[in-house]
Specification:
There is one protein chain. The chain is α/β, with parallel strands linked by helices. It is built from 14 helices and 13 strands. A seven-stranded mixed sheet has the order 3-2-1-4-5-6-7, sandwiched between helices. It has a six-stranded parallel sheet with strand order 10-9-8-11-12-13, with helices on both faces. The relative contact order is 0.12. It comes from Aquirufa novilacunae.
Length: about 375
Amino acid sequence: MRLIIARSNFFSYSETFIEEQINQLEPVDVLYEGWQPSRLKGGGSIYPIPFSILAVRGVLRRALPGLYQKIYTYYLQRFLRDQNIDAFLANYGPLGANIYEACAAEGIPYSVVFLGFDAAEKKTLDTYGSRYATYLPRAKAIICVAESMRANLEAIAGPLPNLHVIPCGVDVSRFTPGTSREGFNVISVARFAEKKGSLKSIKAFEILLQDFPDAQLRMVGDGPLWEEAKEYVTAHGLSSNIHFLGAMGQSDYLPLLQESNVFIQHSVLTPSGDSEGTPVAILEASACGLAICSTRHAGIPDAVVEGKTGLLVDEHDVEGMASALKDLARDLKKTRLMGAAAREHMEAHYDVVKLSVKIKGLLV
């Protein structure tokens, strides 16, 4: 199968699921650069000069968006034909809205993966909803990483028998348990963005410190709310217990996961409708044998078996999360058993190799 995969970014440390998807499905090439991707990871562009120049495309896209879409469709169609592409897999709903016409014109089955905000955020649905209604029923497959996305998409496009729920996966051969350090060590791997609830995690951990003053929290990631979080920690005298490590690649934070006891993430639905799908960092931590402390949000209750592989609380319940952390800190033996169960759950249901086989079977 000559498969092309499209994504909005060349690489993003927060899109590890897409990286795994590319590694497992082995496409002919990868298209990237925004919702109308034209650059090829292998080098070059679908465009000739002058359209291959980013500045030219930017001016045209802003001044005449309708015309630019027609130009994009023409050159994408020509590229698909010249490369004898058999199947197209688009990541994110808005990207799918821009590639389907070229695929349909060439008779190429296209599939789209929805990863979170693209099935929930109000602005995105307002902008692309009418196009979703047109192209989703015609797709070879619509893949959602959490069951919670189905209702939103079917409210727009009607019943979608071609919709399949396949969660994000984790490489269980790479993310494996290590030896945790002594004490109670908590870790977070997430962008400091509103839907990740990083400040809520910090506040819950702050309450934990009242009873467990030696507990440690390491936070991997950066983002728009990073400075606010650091200022809060400094102002509340928490710097000896909470440590900001910045953005890191998988190879760098993997040993940190393996040294920890508990993974924390207070995911929430934002006022704008932004939502998680299935947070990959939770899957990675689970595969490393960590107990999870998180929220009942999107695909998290599927990834975390409540009371068995971790503890979940309602969104925005900081006190409840603090209580859950205290439960985990009081009984480290039980916490270790939860981590072992989390590892088994990942092996059984979230192995990226097995899930990629499912995706591949849907594409043609």
